[in-house]
């Protein structure tokens, strides 16, 4: 049995990169000292800010982001992989990006993924979200080869688009990551069932570190970070929205066992219509 210890960092990210690093660094330290070889943070780990003028004053290039630099240093110090679930950054073309960054044990950013699907919705509660007014959507699916297998990168609202996860699984991903800042209404209704569905459909682990609670900028997020096994069972989870560390030990052999039992990746067919 090949076991990988992972840690999901659940945060309540404040409105500046410096405060976010102060908030998150002790949790990453706790995860590393607890034996985690792969640590994951949520969507919007470097700061959360609903005010557009304040957002534009705060956002920076990823190479100059205090939070990103601090996490890279932590990866080097502990010789671990860290997925910055997403950092809100200025993209190469001057537009903004919601970007995952995979950091290796040397502290190098070895892969990035820009969120493809924008959360543009009007919820029954009256909440209105238009991510496309702020961020340029990504156009490329990303899988990272690591010593513990292929890791498929996605962010939050992507979870509602199963085709992305199928492509990542077919490409070789055995771990699918879903860092998130889910709203409370959609989190209560859909969070767990969507995560478990993506795991079952693809015979893959799903790791979902989440934001939780009421944030400095006034938004409220669902929390309930969780790790799902390839057969669909929840193997570790937070029971609420408080910041903390959730450890999970992944039996990496479970991916092959699930895919042998239900060979849906192999059995998929092209079809026509309607």
Beta fraction: 25-35%
The strand count comes to: 16
Q: Kindly report the name of the CATH homologous superfamily.
A: Carbon-nitrogen hydrolase
| CATH fold topology | Nitrilase/N-carbamoyl-D-aminoacid amidohydrolase
Tell me the count of domains: 1
User: Can you count the helices?
Assistant: 7
CATH architecture: 4-Layer Sandwich
Oligomer: single chain
Question: How do the strands and helices of this protein lay out in sequence?
Answer:
Blueprint: E1 3-10, H1 17-33, E2 38-40, H2 52-58, H3 66-78, E3 81-90, E4 96-103, E5 109-114, E6 120-122, E7 128-130, E8 142-146, E9 149-153, H4 162-170, E10 173-177, H5 184-202, E11 205-208, E12 212-214, E13 220-222, E14 226-228, E15 234-237, E16 244-251, H6 253-261, H7 264-267
Parallel strand pairs: 1-2, 2-3, 9-10, 10-11
Antiparallel strand pairs: 1-16, 3-4, 4-5, 6-7, 8-9, 11-14, 12-13, 14-15
Write structural notes for this entry.
- Helix content is about 30%, strand content about 30%.
- The protein is an alpha/beta fold and about 270 residues long.
- The protein has one domain (about 5-265): Carbon-nitrogen hydrolase (Nitrilase/N-carbamoyl-D-aminoacid amidohydrolase).
- The strands form 4 sheets. It has a 6-stranded mixed β-sheet with strand order 5-4-3-2-1-16. Strands 8-9-10-11-14-15 form a 6-stranded mixed β-sheet, covered by helices on one side.
- Helix 1 (about 15-35) links the parallel strand 1 and strand 2 (about 40).
- Helix 1 runs parallel beside helix 3.
- The longest helix has 19 residues, at about 185-200.
- The chain is globular and about 50 Å long.
